[in-house]
Specification:
It comes from Ciccaba nigrolineata. The chain is α/β, with parallel strands linked by helices. The chain has three domains: 42 residues; 155 residues, Rossmann fold (3-Layer(aba) Sandwich); 38 residues, no CATH class. The chain is 42% helix and 11% strand. The protein contains 13 helices and eleven strands. A five-stranded parallel sheet has the order 5-3-1-8-9, with helices on both faces. A two-stranded parallel ribbon has the order 2-4. A hairpin with a 2-residue loop joins strand 6 and strand 7. Helix 1 packs across helix 2, helix 2 packs across helix 3 and helix 7 packs parallel to helix 8. The longest helix is centred in the C-terminal third of the chain and has 24 residues. The chain starts with a helix and ends with a helix.
Length: 309
């Protein structure tokens, strides 16, 4: 009897030591159900289940890594591939710099503040367009502050100068707004500017839609770059969804009903009732009427049958 029970539970995957301990405690004549319950109570698991649980730990080990720590992540799983879900950013450098300088000084520090704000969010593609003649020394009619910032951003491949030249002493400047809108449109990104680009909207209907839907306005508050939380208005997307390629819809938050189960509004109640999973029920009065109609009608039919003979 001992050997037959030992073979039976070994086929189920339990260890011999655990089986022998249980049989010693319960006796050789113990029922199989009792032995199984005691094995479960002791915390013993079949070897098949343990072997199935082991590969899940191996999936967490990075490829090419010698470590076996379960907390290690794959390279670039969450952090380095931020460009996959964040839109490219194209900044109107002249507009941002003049806004930070109160429309009197071309403040390059404002461009740096805007670039740092998007860097902290994780955006990897950031381009700033500035006319080439801003490389010239500061003058009284066009003062420039912190001009060295433009050189640093150019070395980082963030700042791009739009071409300009001088012909017979006159400066010929290319339209930098066209560069900004064209690059942002091709990259399916976001334009950072307080300009509406109305002349470019009239040129191309596709650009018109793009400028209306992808223009991010901003403000400077005490040297702080602050875009709005609702770029397209109160009923539009949030700032996070506006800057993301895959917007995340917020989960509806329901306020619990203050009356609880005593509420008599039924499906007209605008609050959340945990006891009503589908939230589409009749009012209490209508429920009572629906319940009372059925037995009354049945009772009338039985009376008619009894009276018919």
């Amino acid at each position: 009897v001992h050997q037959s029970k030992l073979d039976f539970f070994c086929k189920l995957g339990y260890g011999k030591q655990d089986i022998c301990k249980v049989l010693e405690n319960l006796g050789q004549e113990a029922l199989e159900d009792d032995v199984l319950k005691e094995l479960i109570r002791m915390g013993s698991k079949p070897q098949a289940l343990e072997s199935q649980a082991q590969p899940s730990l191996l999936k967490l080990v990075a490829r090419g890594s010698c470590s076996t720590t379960p907390g290690s992540k794959w390279l670039g799983e969450d952090e380095s591939d931020s460009s996959d879900y964040l839109r490219p950013i194209v900044i109107d450098g002249s507009n941002v710099a003049m806004s930070h300088g109160n429309k009197e000084v071309f403040s390059c520090w404002g461009i740096q503040l805007a670039v740092d704000w998007f860097r902290e969010r994780g955006h990897t593609y950031i381009k700033v367009f500035v006319p080439l003649w801003r490389k010239e020394p500061s003058r009284q009619d066009s003062p420039i502050a912190d001009q060295h910032i433009l050189e640093e951003l150019e070395k980082q491949s963030i700042l791009v100068y739009t071409p300009s030249r001088k012909v017979k002493g006159k400066r010929v400047v290319c339209y930098d707004d066209r560069y900004i809108v064209k690059v942002a449109y091709e990259k399916d990104g976001v334009i950072v500017s307080n300009d509406h680009y109305r002349d470019l909207q009239n040129e191309n209907p596709e650009w018109k839609w793009f400028i209306e839907q992808r223009l991010l306005m901003y403000s400077f508050v005490s040297n702080r770059f602050m875009p709005p939380d609702d770029p397209l208005g109160r009923h539009g997307p949030t700032l996070n969804n506006f800057l993301s390629k895959k917007p995340v819809l917020p989960e509806p938050k329901w306020q619990p009903c203050p009356y609880g189960k005593k509420c008599t509004y039924g499906n007209k109640c605008k609050f959340y009732h945990p006891e009503r999973p589908h939230q589409a029920q009749l009012s209490v009065a209508d429920e009572l009427r629906a319940k009372t109609k059925v037995p009354i009608s049945l009772g009338k039919e039985e009376d008619k049958r009894n009276r018919s003979p």
